[in-house]
Structure prediction request, 380 residues.
Amino acid sequence: MTATPARRARAANDELVLAELRRSGALSRAELGRRTGLPKTTLFSTVAALLDSGVLLEREAVDNGSRSRGRPASQVVLNPAAGLYAGLDIGRARMRAVIVNASHEVVASGACGVPSCVRADVVVPAAVDLIRSAGAEAGISLAALAGLGAGFAGVPGVEIDAEEIEQVRRELNDVFDAPVALGNNSRAAALAEATWGAGRAVEDLVYVRWSTGIGGGFVVGGLAVAGAHGGAGEIGHVSVDPAGKRCHCGGRGCLEGFAGGAALLEQCVRRGLEVDGLDGLVAAAQNLSPVVMEVVGAAARRLGGVLAGTVAQLDPSRIVVGGELAQLGSLILDPVRQAVAQLALPLARRRVEVVQADLGVNAAALGAVALLLRQGTVSD
Prediction:
């Protein structure tokens, strides 16, 4: 049967609504209308038909206290049974995985060590084992896997070889027989925070991932910025000392070499305190270790100085700090805020917030799912 213009229009409206819910998760009808641009009557009839067909479900919104009166508006969400998506965060020493349903609810997760984030023969077996074990532990069949996203640590063309990355894509596609989207893990985390986390309410934000290294991502006008060569947001490779030591990126005196987690651990050792990894560093800071407090505070102030320049250039309304070091909350956020306040342009200073990320250690893995959905490589 040939589709009539009316049927084609309905199908287009359906896909517009479904695509936005894939990207953003649960939304009220008002939010959905603003994001899709559909007229109110068209939107309501489209949503009603999708609810009747079981493709969408309706639920009560969580009341977060932001409304002054009345009940929170109900939300519509994709039926969780519509499919599963996997996201991978492939870091320099650790890999994390999440499996989410069509409603963007995490139904399984896991983590493992990985000795290299740029070699396909190392990454692919570890990723396959991690996803399968996470699914098995949660009792989930991966037969419903509709797509997979992965974020890698590193500077494109410097730490990440394009041929190796393409090999990872091909092999993961072969194993799971599903579309695969790849990108940078810090920019994936920025996208996740902008979509579901601490940046959801703003259009312009800077995200910082403070971990073993320091990465970042920019969201401008609601869109994640990759840059001409895929390297936008590499905050950790801003030079803070041109006469400093050579960085693995090829530059000198990069911020990461002074304030990255690996550098902080080295600084503690030089001061006579050996700390057991980033988790130990965070624990020592939370226990108010004088040495760790001094090392971390100085690093936060240096990070704030770099972010002040970023604020002057991009004029974001919010800076979101994630990664393991973000668990320290005000211990690192306050020095960053002070540095931004002292060094950024006065106009930008009045409008920028510095906040802790919402999504925790799984932000980049969730962002890899967001990357997959925004690329439009999956379909129902």
Remarks:
- The radius of gyration is 22 Å.
- The chain has a mean pLDDT of 87.
